[in-house]
């Protein structure tokens, strides 16, 4: 497009929905401000580009040129890997192909304003961007509070917090109130040293960037953003919530399943439904799955539950549910493989969101004024859960270790019947503040104006 000439931005998302979605939303925001967008995406988890007709997609493959065929990384190589191992492999395998793809894009003639890469890619993207003389902005898809904890990893390690995780679970982390030891953003892994390397590479990559873009807003995380920016000598751009910016991209086409979910929600009373979903990466044991199923059923509340294939370890989908479980539920409960979460949370029938507290889910719930039941699984989700419960006070924590049928039944029922209202009011207040931040002269709008000015002034 002629009018976007000289305004090209290259984006490099991490290939998981919790990272790809906010990058695509950010692409929509830049596009609306007159930029053209090229997305360099790994062959691993490559998306369907026809869903995003405004953007140009380029596959970067770790296969040698001419080898062709399906990318082996998506099949045998990754099966059974824990998340830390998977990220290590992605970073290793795609570093060189990314460098080559970026050089090809930049050498293509059209001026490139900057690269926006996911923070987890770390300093590899810094080296590649320097080589071709392009400024690099970083998108951090998680919140500022959890980033404070990541940035404190060296200190926490020196103080011995990581070696006593099991024995001091309920102790406060005095350096990072209100976190407790059990809230530290670790991941279950066979290779804790590698986790430490990934985190420190992310933090160093942020420090050496030309700026950090956050999917958060000042009225939610002002203190944490200020703490971080006093230690990081780079500009911060908290532009969130991304999904609430008007970007004028075509709406997603609705699938048959989406329509069925909407129809089902239409039949429920206002604020009566528990929406349960644990994001795109977390998995649970079969025992936990059954406790959740019975707890939801026994609560006698209506529920919509996303059970992603792969959510329950060692099973395909719902085969471990007892025979007739669904039939006995009647219209009270609905289990689906995936849904349009933004639409579900915006529906007036939804009363509470039982979530793993991924950052996107957290922001999406807050922005619809829906209080939460928090069952964090790993990493930043633990920090998010503590902030949801103790700082913003828009949810309660239901720890995985406490999750038996009776406890679930009790927590779910009380979230809908008793204490939902106060939390909902607080959540609605945050929803309003988010809208203000996005409005004229709001902080997110002002940061976006500044970001656009900065990007246009980059001299690469
Ligand atoms: C991961 C980490 O878990 C999270 O903590 C980190 O901040 C980002 O990466 P994920 O586990 O997928 O993300 O959770 P979350 O951040 O909540 O992202 C899930 C995304 O998938 C959300 O945007 C949500 O709207 C979407 N989603 C989820 C759907 O559209 N449909 C569904 O059925 C479930």
Give the helix/strand layout:
Elements: E1 8-12, H1 17-32, E2 36-42, E3 56-60, H2 83-106, E4 112-118, H3 124-131, E5 136-140, H4 144-151, H5 153-158, H6 192-207, E6 212-214, H7 218-231, E7 236-238, H8 256-266, E8 273-277, H9 286-299, E9 302-306, H10 325-329, E10 333-336, H11 341-346, E11 350-355, H12 359-367, E12 372-374, H13 380-391, E13 395-397, H14 405-417, H15 420-438, H16 443-457
Helix pairs in contact: 2-3, 2-6, 4-7, 4-13, 9-14
The protein binds uridine-5'-diphosphate-xylopyranose (UDX).
Uridine-5'-diphosphate-xylopyranose binds next to helix 1, helix 11, helix 12 and helix 13.
Keywords: Glycosyltransferase, Transferase
GO molecular function: UDP-glucosyltransferase activity
InterPro entries: UDP_glucos_trans
Strand content: 5-15%
Number of helices: 16
Ligands, deduplicated: uridine-5'-diphosphate-xylopyranose
* Structural class label: alpha/beta
Low-confidence region ranges = none
Q: How would you state the average pLDDT, rounded?
A: 93
Q: What Rg, in angstroms, do the CA atoms define?
A: 22 Å
For the sheet with most strands, the description reads: 7 strands, parallel
Beta strand count: 13
Shape: globular
Order of the strands making up the biggest sheet:
3-2-1-4-5-6-7
In which range does the helix fraction lie?
40-55%
What series of H and E elements makes up the topology? EHEEHEHEHHHEHEHEHEHEHEHEHEHHH
């Amino acid at each position: 497009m002629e009018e976007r000439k000289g305004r090209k931005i290259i984006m490099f998302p991490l290939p998981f929905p919790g990272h790809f979605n906010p990058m695509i939303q950010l692409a929509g925001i830049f596009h609306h401000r007159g930029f053209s967008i090229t997305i360099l995406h790994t062959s691993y988890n490559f998306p369907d580009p026809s869903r995003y007709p405004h953007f140009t997609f380029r596959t970067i493959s770790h296969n040698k040129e001419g080898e062709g065929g399906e990318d082996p990384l998506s099949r045998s190589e990754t099966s059974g890997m824990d998340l830390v191992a998977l990220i290590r492999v992605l970073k290793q395998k795609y570093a060189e192909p990314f460098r080559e793809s970026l050089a090809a894009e930049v050498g293509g003639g059209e001026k490139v304003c900057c690269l926006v890469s996911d923070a987890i890619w770390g300093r590899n993207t810094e080296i590649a961007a320097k080589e071709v003389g392009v400024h690099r902005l970083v998108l951090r898809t998680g919140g500022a509070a959890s980033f404070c904890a990541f940035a404190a990893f060296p200190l926490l390690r020196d103080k011995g917090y990581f070696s006593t995780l099991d024995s001091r679970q309920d102790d406060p982390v005095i350096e990072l109130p209100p976190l407790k030891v059990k809230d530290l953003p670790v991941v279950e892994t066979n290779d804790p040293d590698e986790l430490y390397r990934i985190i420190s590479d992310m933090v160093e990559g942020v420090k050496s960037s030309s700026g950090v873009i956050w999917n958060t807003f000042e009225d939610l995380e002002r203190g944490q953003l200020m703490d971080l920016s006093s230690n990081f000598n780079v500009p911060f751009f908290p532009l969130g919530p991304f999904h609430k910016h008007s970007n004028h991209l075509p709406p997603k086409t609705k699938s048959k399943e989406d329509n069925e979910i909407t129809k089902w929600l239409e039949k429920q009373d206002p604020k009566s439904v528990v929406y349960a979903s644990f994001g795109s990466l977390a998995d649970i044991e079969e025992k936990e799955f059954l406790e959740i199923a019975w707890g939801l059923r026994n609560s006698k509340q209506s529920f919509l539950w996303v059970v992603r294939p792969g959510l329950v370890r060692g099973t395909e989908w719902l085969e471990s549910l007892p025979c007739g479980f669904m039939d006995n539920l009647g219209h009270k409960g609905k289990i689906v493989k995936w849904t349009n979460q933004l639409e579900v949370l915006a529906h007036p029938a939804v009363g509470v969101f039982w979530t793993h507290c991924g950052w996107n889910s957290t922001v999406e719930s807050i922005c619809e004024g829906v209080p939460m039941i928090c069952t964090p699984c790993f990493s930043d989700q633990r920090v998010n859960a503590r902030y949801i419960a103790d700082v913003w006070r828009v949810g309660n924590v239901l720890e995985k270790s406490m999750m038996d049928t009776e406890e679930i039944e009790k927590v779910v029922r009380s979230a809908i019947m008793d204490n939902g209202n106060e939390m909902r009011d607080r959540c609605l207040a945050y929803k309003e503040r988010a809208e203000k931040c996005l409005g004229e002269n709001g902080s997110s709008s002002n940061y976006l104006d500044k970001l656009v000015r900065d990007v246009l002034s980059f001299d690469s």
